[in-house]
Write a structure and sequence with these properties.
This is Outer membrane chaperone Skp (OmpH). This protein has 166 residues and is mainly alpha-helical. The chain has helices at residues 2-12, 26-32, 34-71, 77-102, 107-133, 158-165, and strands at 21-24, 138-141.
Length: 166
């Protein structure tokens, strides 16, 4: 809602006849860039490795838990408490691993940011060049938060940006 209000305010101060507006589809650009595809492959490999490690940790916990459940009636109180503590520690390790790798500011997020940054900078530079060369006042991303209810194809500069990136 705030973005719409900002757009209305921006356009209300300038004559619409003087504006030249274009848009790009950043998802289409990213899907066609080889370096973006390479970055995604690297991320997928990292995710696979971490997921396998997580699965192994969870399998180990499950095996220990099932073993504990089978034997808990014959274990001494001290041994039961010891195994229960070990199981709780393993659960905490699994949770910590999951959070460190896949959490909101986890290693996956940081790695994605690291891999995407040079690609996004290159895309933004190409968009800026296209905008200047074609005298656009605004370039919007149709795959972002701003919703286009209608847009003429003639204002789609996605292909110009892709050409600039080649």
């Amino acid at each position: 809602m705030k973005k719409i209000l900002l757009l209305i305010l921006a356009f209300s101060t300038v004559s619409f006849a003087q504006l030249k507006i274009g848009y790009v589809d950043s998802e289409a650009i990213m899907s066609q860039l080889p370096e973006a595809q390479d970055a995604q492959k690297k991320l997928d490999a990292i995710i696979k490795e971490w997921q396998e490690e997580l699965n192994k940790m969870e399998k180990d916990w499950k095996t220990k838990y099932e073993d504990y459940e089978k034997r808990k009636l014959i274990l001494s109180e001290q041994k039961r408490v010891e195994i229960e503590k070990e199981l709780v520690q393993l659960e905490e390790q699994i949770s910590k691993f999951r959070q460190e790798k896949f959490g909101v500011r986890g290693e996956l997020f940081q790695k994605k940011e690291e891999l995407d940054k040079p690609i996004l900078n290159r895309i933004f530079n190409a968009i800026e060049e296209v905008a200047k060369e074609n005298d656009f006042d605004f370039i919007f991303d149709k795959s972002g938060d701003i919703m286009f209810l209608y847009a003429k194809e003639e204002y789609d500069v996605t292909n110009l940006v892709l050409e600039k990136l080649k």
